[in-house]
C-alpha cells in the first residue's frame, strides 16, 4: 500500500466506494463523481486529500481542509476539518492509520493548531477510529460527536 495525493483520475473509484458506504448506511452526504471532484479534489479550502492505493486500487482516502468562517460544520475558523472514507473490503487493515499519519503531518506543515472530526453519534467504528488516532470529544451537537486533535501535541 502506498499513499499519495488524490487526483482527478481517482474520482471514479472514490465515488464508487462512497456509494458502497452509502448503501451500507455508513454515509449520508452525496457520493456522486461531481461531488467528489468538487468537494474533495478541487475545494479551495483543501489542505490535502490523500489516497491509499494498492495495485491501482484506491483503498481509501482522507480529506483535510481548513475551516472557513461560517463553515457548515460549525468548526472554529482556522482549524482543520478531517474526513475518512475506506473501501469496505479494505477496512481494518491499517489504511485509515496510514492516511492519518500523512494528514497530521500535512496539518502540522500548514500550521494548524487543531483538527476537527465530526462523526454521527451512532457511528461506533468512526468514533473508535478517531479515538485510536488520538482525537478526543470536545462538543456534542444534536446527533453528532465532535472530536479534536492537538496537532502540536496534547495541551499545546
Ligand atoms: C472508520 C474507518 C475510517 C476506519 O478506517 P480503517 O482503515 O478500517 O482503520 P484502521 O484499520 O487503520 O484502524 C485503526 C484503528 O482504529 C480503530 N478501529 C478501526 N475500525 C474499527 C472498528 N470497526 N471497530 C473498532 N475499532 C476500530 C482500531 O483501534 C484500529 O486499530 P487496530 O486495528 O490496531 O485495533 C473506516 O472503517 C470507514 O471508512 N468507515 C466508514 C466511513 C466512516 O465512518 N468514516 C469516519 C467518520 S466520518
From TrEMBL:
InterPro entries: Acyl_CoA_acyltransferase, Bact_Acetyltransf, GNAT_dom. It comes from Denitrobaculum tricleocarpae. The keyword Protein biosynthesis does not apply. Residues 1-152 form the N-acetyltransferase domain. Keywords: Acyltransferase, Transferase. This is GNAT family N-acetyltransferase. The keyword Cell cycle does not apply. GO terms for molecular function: acyltransferase activity, transferring groups other than amino-acyl groups. PANTHER family: AMINOALKYLPHOSPHONATE N-ACETYLTRANSFERASE-RELATED-RELATED.
Amino acid at each position: 500500500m502506498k499513499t499519495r495525493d488524490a487526483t482527478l483520475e481517482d474520482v471514479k473509484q472514490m465515488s464508487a466506494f462512497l456509494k458502497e458506504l452509502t448503501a451500507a448506511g455508513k454515509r449520508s452526504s452525496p457520493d456522486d463523481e461531481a461531488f467528489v471532484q468538487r468537494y474533495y479534489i478541487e475545494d479551495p479550502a483543501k489542505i490535502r486529500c490523500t489516497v491509499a492505493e494498492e495495485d491501482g486500487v484506491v483503498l481509501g482516502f482522507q480529506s483535510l481542509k481548513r475551516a472557513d468562517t461560517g463553515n457548515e460544520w460549525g468548526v472554529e475558523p482556522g482549524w482543520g476539518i478531517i474526513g475518512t472514507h475506506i473501501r469496505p473490503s479494505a477496512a481494518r487493515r491499517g489504511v485509515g492509520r496510514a492516511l492519518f499519519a500523512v494528514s497530521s503531518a500535512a496539518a502540522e506543515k500548514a500550521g494548524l493548531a487543531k483538527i476537527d472530526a465530526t462523526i454521527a453519534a451512532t457511528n461506533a467504528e468512526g468514533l473508535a477510529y478517531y479515538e485510536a488516532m488520538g482525537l478526543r470529544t470536545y462538543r456534542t451537537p444534536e446527533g453528532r460527536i465532535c472530536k479534536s486533535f492537538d496537532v502540536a501535541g496534547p495541551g499545546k
